[in-house]
Every structure is written in C-alpha cells, then in structure tokens.
Design brief:
The complex is a heterotrimer.
Chain A: H1 3-16, H2 21-43, H3 47-67, H4 71-96, H5 111-132, H6 142-146, H7 148-157, H8 161-182, H9 193-203, E1 226-227, E2 233-234, H10 240-245, H11 251-265, H12 281-287
Antiparallel strand pairs in A: 1-2
Chain B: H1 2-10, E1 21-22, H2 33-48, H3 56-79, E2 88-98, E3 101-109, H4 111-134, H5 141-160, H6 164-182, H7 189-220, H8 225-230, H9 238-256, H10 263-267, H11 273-282, H12 287-294, H13 296-300, H14 303-326, H15 330-350, H16 353-383, H17 401-414, H18 421-433, H19 441-470, H20 492-513, H21 517-526, H22 538-562, H23 574-580, H24 585-633, H25 638-660
Parallel strand pairs in B: 1-2
Antiparallel strand pairs in B: 2-3
Helix pairs in contact in B: 2-3, 2-5, 3-4, 3-5, 4-5, 4-11, 4-16, 4-20, 5-6, 6-7, 7-9, 9-12, 9-14, 11-15, 11-16, 12-15, 14-15, 14-19, 14-23, 15-16, 15-18, 15-19, 16-17, 16-18, 16-20, 16-21, 17-19, 17-20, 18-19, 18-20, 19-22
Chain C: H1 4-23, H2 27-52, H3 56-86
Helix pairs in contact in C: 1-2, 2-3
C-alpha cells in the first residue's frame, strides 16, 4: 500500500463523509479476520497460538491505520507491537514453558457467565454509543496525509515535548524495573570448576580417568573389560551404556587363565604371577 | 422563729460579728509551728525510712512534746491578755484565689482552739511516751510514730484552722491517720477491713462537711469562720441554716461515731492500744463536738437542727451504754463507753449556749480519764499476752497495782463518783439537759431523764468492766502453749503516763470547775451563758444521779464480784444478745446500705454486661456477620475482582446513558 | 461504509480483550487481552483523529503505545518473577488476598 493509494482512499472521505469502496473492501476483508482472531483468545489452548492470533490482529490494525491516513502510526504499530512487544511475549513464553497448554475448565464458580455477561454488556453499550452518535466528519487533506510524519513530529516535539520526555523517562524506568524484578539474588555461594573438583575429591570419587576397555585382555573390543594388575577384570572399564544394555562381554571368558594363575599363586608365596609348577608361556610373556 | 429570735437575742454580742484580731508580731507567731513540727517529724520518719528505726520513736516523742511546749507558751501568752482580745488570727497568706472564692490560710488562736491544742498535745505526748514501751517489740515502731505525728499535725490543723476548708484539710488528715493506724497491722484481714470500714464511715461524714461548705459559700460567699459565723443574721433563710447545721451534724456523726454512723468505732479497736487511747477515745472522735461547738452561732440560729443534735446525742448515749453492758472484749467495752460519753457531749452541744462549755468541759475530762483507762487496758493486755476477753481476767488488781489504781481513778471519774473529774463535767451536762426549753417543756424532762438514766447504766457497765478485770477470783488459764500466765506490771515508761492521766482524772475536774474557771476561759468564744434553772432543783438532780450510779455499781458488784463470773458467756436475754452484736448495727447497715449497694452494683454489672456490652458486642457481631457475607465475594481471585469491576462499569455506563436519554 | 464501522470494530475488539482478561487463567494470555484492549483504544483514537482531521489523536495513540510498551516490560517481568517463585503462570494461583 503506497502513499498514492492511501491518498485516493482518504480523498473521497472529505467529499461524502463515506469511505471509498477500496477502503470498504479492505475493511470488510480485515475486520472479520480480526474479530475471529481476537475471539480465538477466549478459547485457544496454547499460549503460543494466542500470541500468533494477537500478532494477526495487530498487523491488521497497522494496515487499517495506514488506510486511515495514519501512516507513521501504522509503521510504529508494526515495529513496536509486532516487532517488540509480541516478541517479548514469545520470549517470556519460552521462559515459562511453551509446552504447557491451558485447561479451559472454569475453576471459579459463575465466573464464566459473569465474564460473558460483562463482555457482551460492554460490547452492547459501547457499540450502542458509537453507533448512535452522529459525527461531523472533516477528514484529512491530501497534503496532511502526505506529510503525516512531519505533522505528528510538529505536534509531538512542539506541544507535547514535555510529555514525550516524561514518557521516555518512563520507558527507562520500566526497563530498570524489569531488571530489578527479574533479578535473582544469589542465596548460595557460586559453584565453579574448583568447587566442583573439591567436592569430587571430598566425595572420594575416582580421580584418574577410568581404565580403557580391553587393556591387557585377550580381546581389545569395547565390550571387554580391562584386567587389573592382579589379573581381575575391571567392570568400570566398560562403557556405562554397554553395561546398562547388558552388551558387556563375559569377563571370565577372557580372564579364565588368570584364575588358574591365581590358584597357583596362592600355593607359592612371594610370586605374584605365574606358577613354576605349571609353566605358562603367555603368563611369563605378559609378566615380563 | 420566735425561739430563734430569742436565742439570737440571748447571745452575748462578742460571739457575733468579727471580733478577731490579726496577730502581726509577738510570740504568738510561733503558732504555725504547732502544726509544722509534728508534720516535719512525720515526713522525716516516713521519708528517711529504716535509717531512723533506732531513734525514730524518740523523734516522734520530741515533736509531740515540742508542740505541747509551744501550745503552753501560747497559752501563757493568752492568759496575759484581756478577755476581750483573746480571739486572734495568725494570717498565713492567700491560700486559694479562684474566681469569687478567696480564702486566706490562717491559724485561729482562741480559748477553744487552745483547749484542744493543750489536750491533744499533752495527752498525745503522754501516749507517745507510753507507745515507746508498748510498741517496743514491733518491727514497724518507727512507722507507727510517723503516723502518730501525722495525726497530731492533722488534729492541730483541724482545731487551729480559721476556715471550714482548712478545718476540712485537718479533718481529712485525721481520717487518714486514723485509717493508717487502725490498719497498722494490716496483714490481718479483719484489721484491714476494720480500717476500711472506718474510712468509709468517715467519708459519709466528710460528704456532709463538703455539702455544708458548699451551702456556706452559696449563702455567705466564703467559708472562713469570721464570715460564716459572723454572717448569721435573722434574715438568713432558716432552711439554709438548718441544711448547713444538719450537714455539719452529719460530718460530726461520721467523725465522732454518733448514731447512725457509729458502727466503725468498735472495729477501730483493731489498731494498737495507744491508737485507741489517743484517737478513738481522747482526741479525734471529739472533733465532731469541736465542729458543732465551733459552729455555735450557726446552730443557735437553727433550733430545729439543734433538736436533731440533741436526739442524736441521746440515742448514741443510750446506744453506747447498752452495747457497753454486753461486751466482753475490754477494748470494745471501752469503745462503747467512748461512744456513749461523746453522746453526752453531742447532747450538751445540742442544748445550745447552756451546754457548749460543758460539752467541752466533759470532753477535756473524758480525754484524760478515757485515755488513762485505755492505757490501763493496754497495760493489762501487755501483762496478759494480748488477751482482751474480760471473762478470762479477774483478780488482776493484785498483780498490777499501778494499773489497778490508775484504772480505778479513771473508772471513778467516768461513773461520776463525787469529786472526781467526771462528776463535775457530767453533772453539769445532766443539769443542762434538765433546763427547760421555751415552748417544748417535754424536752427538758425527756432528755434530762435520758442523761440521768444513762449515768446509771454507765456506772453499771464501767463497774462491770472494772470488777471483771481487777476484782473477783482469777479466771485466767494457761496459755495456748501450756506455759503459765504471769500477769505483771508494765514498765515505767508505760506506767508514768498512766499515773499522770490518773492524776488528771482525779483532780482536773475539780480544778477547772473551781470558780467556774473553765466556763469563763471559754467565754470569749462561747459567751457567758445566762444561768438558767433546771426543772428540778440542782441538789435533787445530783442526788438522783448519784443514787442511780450507786445502784449501777451495786448491781455490778453483786453480779461480778459477789457471784462467779462464767468463763463462757451465758446465753442471756434477747437484749444482751442484741447488745453483743452492737444492737445489730452491722446487720442494719448490711441490710440498709451494704446489700442494696451490692445489689445495685450487681445490677449495674448485669446491665453493663448485657445491655451495654451486649450493644457494643452486637454491633461487633453485626459487623462480623456483614463481613462474613462480604467475605464470600472476596475470593482472592484477581479475575473475580476484575469481573465485578467490569460489571460495575457496564452498569454505571448504562445508568449514565439512561439518565441522559 | 462510514467511519462508525471502525469504532464498532474497536468496541468489539475491546470487549473481546476484556472478556479474555476475565476468562483466561494464564497470566500471559490475560496480558494479551490487555494489549488487545489498548490496541482497540488506539484504533478509536486514530479513527477520531481522522474524523476531526486533527493529528493530536494519532499523537495520543503514539503515547499509548509507548506506555503500553513500558507496561508490558514491567508486567512480563512480574509474571516471570511470580513464575520463578511459584512455578505457575496462572493468575488464580496468586490468591494470597484470600481469607
């Protein structure tokens, strides 16, 4: 929608008090969409969907603003509302958790009917008032529409400059307020790398890396436990995942000889490995 | 009215109108010290506390004696003056200056107040000395002396005041001292209750004095003696005068234990015996007599009130005498006799100018012999381990000779034995009672007979008391712990005051009566009463009185010396039983005053609980109920609140629209 | 079509926003309802600006947007703070006023 279209749309108003057909078509296309989207807020379950519906309403509003000659405001609407405010909403939804969908069952007795009554009553009253009133429509001159940002700037920085500054201060204050509100006070001391390692040492965990599987085993696959210096299989050397899945190889299969070695070792004292009565090349080889 | 005119006309001119001189210089300016020294001593003893425990009692004796010395100095000075210039005022400056009310504090020095000063300080000092020994074993002796000094100061304020308000100040002071001293052993509940009873009864009397002062201020514009007593004229409303006089009588009844406010005096014996001697026999209870005599011009002008005074005196006189016949407690019997003797004085004071001086005369002699007898009773209790039941005495005369003799002097004085003190004073009162009153001949016969008969009863019950205590066979038993009773004579500090008072009991009456000395001395205040003849010749009256006294003694002798005295009191006649319980005075008080009062209190409490509290708490309950209803709307849910907000908004808009259309 | 249609649309959107505030329990959706109401107001302002041929209405709408932005910032941080302490974004759980 460019300035020329807007111009033609608005131009006809000054003569008849009625909008142009183009504007009417635009309105009748957008208005039902907006009302539907807004009604969706009442019964949609997921907050993210609700946010998307609100965005729809807001963009439609921006278009209607521009159609009515408020070009600057239409842009601001898009930038501020859809660009900033609704994005903030989505951020917060992420923070709070998007997966939670709301139950629509009313918990306060009578609240639903009171709310609907109040809403419909309000709508009736408002519609009644605005529809009954007669307006002396003057409309904008094409030049005014053309110079809409300049016109707004003149009023904003002329008549309302103090209010503008105050609102600026309000925004800064709000930002600070948000910082204060979301600030989390640290109640426990900070836990860093040093603290973690100290805690592990204090808890008596294994300080060194765990032994790799297959070390000194006859079979150096991942599922074979390593053998310790005493020839016993070390269960912790097999990756945890394999152990949980039950895909660990039978350690005894690979350490069977060790049993024999240990059985002999118990007869001859002082010998750690191997039995002189039962010569075993492999054992000798390994011990050297 | 004609009696009023006659009475006013009969009064000597110097009792009416301000004949008061103000003392500017001279020895009489020491008079305020009479009050100041005992007051300072009391303050010192109370403020310094235990530090004065070792010598405090001697300070008390010194203060009291110093007051006596000052009183004596003033007295000598007064004797040196001519009769016309014996009414003096020592001005102490402006006391109260409030709107139309101006009052100067001042010391009134005249024969009447000086009589009281000398009586109070002399008897008071003797009793102080006695109490040094009597209270020797009491840990709180110092506090006792502080109270005694406070009493002396208050009593002297009372008699030296130059206005009713200052008198009231002292009046309250003696009430306070009396309360403190009756309840001196207040760790015993019944003693504390007795003190409270005395205080309340006195309060009723005080109310009378306050109302009287209000009436005086309204009528005369001041409460000073000069203005009020000098302001009584024939034109003063009779109703007002009667009102003032009756209110003063009410005050006197409260302080002097006269009917119907007499019930506290018997219970007041809860105090230590020196207190009974000083306050409840010799001095304080006579304040009512002083008040009436001091207000003589008022009473003279209110003959109706005077008749009431006489009646009150007569009733109390008989009442006390009857009660005295039945009491077995030596102190209570003496208290009843005090009540009765003050009845004599009130009766005399009610007779008007013929009786005032004799009322004071009897007051002085009574002060001596009654104080002497109370000290004697204290001495007996001292020797008998605080036993007061006369049925457990008997034959004590052999063991405590000095007490026996001094008490005997008091006994002879009070029954009016010829040439003892009481003989002169009481006889004068009986004679005065027989003086005919114009227009009411029955009065002389009636009140004269009552006074005479009461003398006989007095002789009986005092003899009964004396015989039961000192004569007959000994009836005392072993002590509670099994050891033997050893009746013994009191130490010298106790016996000497008794001896001095006994001398007074014997000789004072004769001394003061000789040459009409006492009546003349009081004349500057009370005037010279014209001598009036009783309805019977004086010797006949005297003879009859003595005969009645003799009969009384004889009956007492027969019953309490010649025959055995039962240790357990016999049932007795209904009159005896009634007299034992003070003629049901407490019952009457309970039924007429205490119970209605309590019922009133209970009903007020009930009204307070139900009506007032009910109203208040039902306001609360309604509020709570409303809140309970309102609470249902306060769900705590923001959405509910928002809904009601929006509904309200819609309704509001509709209302605005409807109004506009 | 007259400009009244815009106003009617704004009224309907406003009422829907208000009803959302009353009906929904999720604080964030409630907040969206508030935003919807603000936007409906802005539409009214813009339409009246056009009716009167006066740009002040648009300036007002601009101010509304800025204040709404500030409000959203504070409001959302409050929601986050409450969520942190109560693990819930439901407005019904914030009922300490009850009893």
């Amino acid at each position: 929608m460019n300035a020329a279209t807007t111009l033609t749309l608005v131009q006809s108003l000054s003569e008849t008090g009625k909008t142009s057909t183009g504007e009417a078509v635009l309105f009748w296309c957008l208005a039902p969409v907006m009302v539907l989207a807004a009604s969706g807020l009442l019964f949609i379950k997921k907050a993210v969907h609700a946010a998307l519906l609100v965005i729809t309403v807001m963009i439609s509003l921006a278009i209607l603003y521009i159609a009515q000659g408020a070009v600057f405001l239409g842009m601001v609407q898009v930038v501020v509302y859809t660009g900033a405010v609704m994005m903030l909403f989505l951020f917060v939804l992420m923070l709070v958790g998007v997966d939670g969908s709301d139950s629509l069952v009313e918990t306060i007795r009578g609240q639903r009917w009171i709310a609907l009554l109040a809403g419909i009553g309000l709508a009736c009253v408002l519609v009644g008032v605005v529809a009954k009133a007669a307006y002396d429509v003057s409309g904008f001159t094409p030049e005014a529409v053309d110079n809409n940002p300049q016109g707004i700037a003149e009023i904003l920085f002329g008549q309302y400059v103090f209010a503008f500054e105050v609102v600026g201060a309000l925004l800064v204050t709000a930002a600070l307020g948000a910082l204060v509100l979301t600030h989390r006070q640290r109640l426990t001391p900070r836990v860093g790398q040093k603290e973690r390692s100290d805690a592990r040492v204090a808890a008596g965990a294994t300080l060194t890396p765990l032994p790799a599987p297959g070390v000194y085993a006859r079979h150096n696959a991942m599922d074979v436990p390593a053998l310790g210096p005493d020839g016993r299989p070390l269960d912790s050397s097999v990756p945890r995942v394999l152990r949980i899945r039950g895909q660990e190889a039978d350690a005894q299969e690979f350490a069977a000889r060790i049993d024999r070695v240990l059985a002999g070792g118990s007869v001859v004292a002082g010998k750690q490995f191997g039995n002189p009565d039962v010569p075993d090349a492999a054992a000798t080889e390994e011990s050297t | 009215m004609h009696t009023l005119t006659a009475l006013v006309a009969s009064l000597p001119s110097d009792t009416i109108g301000p004949a008061t001189e103000t003392v500017e210089t001279g020895t009489l300016l020491v008079a305020p010290l009479l009050v100041g020294i005992p007051l300072l001593s009391a303050a010192l003893l109370l403020v310094l506390g235990r530090r004065t425990d070792r010598w405090g009692h001697w300070l008390g004796v010194l203060a009291s004696s110093a007051a006596f010395v000052i009183g004596a100095v003033v007295f000598v000075n007064m004797l040196g003056r001519s009769e016309g210039s014996r009414v003096l005022d020592v001005d102490l400056g402006n006391w109260i200056d409030a709107g139309a009310f101006h009052l100067n504090a001042g010391v009134r020095l005249d024969p009447l107040s000086l009589t009281f000063v000398l009586l109070v300080t002399f008897v008071g000092s003797l009793i102080h000395i006695y109490a040094v020994a009597y209270m020797e074993h009491d840990a709180d002796r110092r506090r006792f002396f502080a109270y005694l000094n406070l009493f002396i100061a208050a009593m002297l304020t009372l008699v030296l005041a130059n206005s009713y308000l200052l008198l009231f100040f002292g009046w309250e002071g003696v009430g306070l001292a009396s309360y403190l001293l009756i309840g001196f052993w207040n760790y015993r509940l019944d003693y504390a209750v007795a003190a409270k009873k005395a205080f309340v009864a006195n309060r009723i009397g005080d109310l009378g004095l306050i109302i009287a002062m209000g009436l005086m201020f309204a009528t005369f514009g001041s409460v000073s003696f000069d203005t009020v007593l000098g302001g009584v004229t024939e034109s003063t409303s009779q109703a007002t005068l009667n009102g003032i006089a009756l209110m003063l009588l009410l005050a006197a009844c409260g302080k002097s234990a006269q009917f119907p406010l007499q019930s506290w005096l018997g219970d007041a014996m809860a105090g230590p015996t020196p207190v009974s001697a000083l306050i409840h026999a010799a001095t304080m209870v006579t304040a009512g007599v002083y008040l009436i005599v001091r207000s003589a011009p008022l009473f003279n002008a209110a003959p109706d009130a005077q008749l009431v005074v006489v009646c009150v005196g007569a009733v109390t006189l008989v009442f006390g005498a009857i009660v005295g016949c039945a009491k077995d407690d030596i102190k209570k019997a003496l208290a009843a006799s005090t009540m009765s003797q003050i009845g004599y004085m009130i009766l005399a004071a009610g007779l008007g100018p013929v009786g005032y001086a004799f009322a004071i005369f009897h007051l002085v002699t009574h002060g001596f012999f009654k104080a002497g007898m109370f000290l004697g009773a204290g001495s007996v209790m001292h020797g008998m381990d605080d036993q007061v039941n006369m049925r457990l005495f008997g034959g004590l005369g052999r063991y405590m000779k000095i007490t026996y003799i001094t008490f005997g002097a008091g006994w002879l004085a009070i029954i009016g034995f010829p040439f003892f003190s009481g003989f002169y004073s009481k006889d004068h009162i009986i004679e005065s009672a027989f003086v005919p009153v114009e227009g009411a001949p029955w009065r002389a016969w009636f009140f004269g007979s009552v006074a005479m008969l009461a003398a006989g009863i007095t002789a009986f019950y005092m003899s009964r008391l004396f015989f039961m205590t000192f004569e007959g066979e000994k009836r005392w038993t072993n002590k509670a712990d099994g050891s033997h009773q050893h009746p013994h004579e009191a130490p010298k500090l106790m016996t000497w005051p008794m001896i001095v008072l006994a001398v007074g009991s014997v000789g004072l009456g004769a001394f003061l009566n000789a040459g009409n000395k006492f009546v003349d001395w009081l004349a500057p205040v009370l005037g010279h009463p014209e001598h009036e003849e009783p309805v019977m010749p004086v010797p006949v009256i005297m003879g009859l009185t003595l005969a009645l006294v003799a009969v009384g003694i004889l009956i007492a002798w027969r019953r309490y010396v010649a025959s055995r005295v039962p240790v357990v009191p016999p049932v007795g006649t209904s009159l005896t039983r009634a007299a034992r319980v003070d003629l049901y005075q407490d019952t009457v008080n309970d039924v007429l005053l205490v119970e209605p009062g309590q019922a009133l209190t209970r009903s007020l409490v009930y009204v307070d609980r139900t009506a007032i509290d009910g109203t208040v708490s039902s306001v609360g309950r309604v509020t709570v109920g409303l809140g309970e209803i309102a609470r249902r709307f306060q769900t705590g849910y923001v959405r509910s609140y928002a809904a009601s907000m929006l509904l309200g908004l819609v309704v509001l808009v509709i209302v605005v629209l409807v109004i506009q259309i | 079509m007259s400009l009244t249609h815009y106003l009617v649309l704004a009224a309907i959107l406003f009422s829907l926003g208000a009803t959302t505030v009353l009906l929904r329990r999720n604080a964030i959706i409630v907040f969206m309802g508030v935003e919807l109401m603000l936007n409906a107001t802005n539409l009214t302002l813009v339409t009246f600006s056009r009716i009167h041929g006066d740009l002040t209405g648009q300036v007002m709408a601009f101010f509304v947007m800025v204040v709404a932005a500030a409000e959203v910032v504070v409001g959302l941080s409050i929601i986050v703070a409450i969520f942190r302490t109560r693990r819930s974004a439901s407005v019904d759980d914030v009922n300490l006023l009850k009893n």
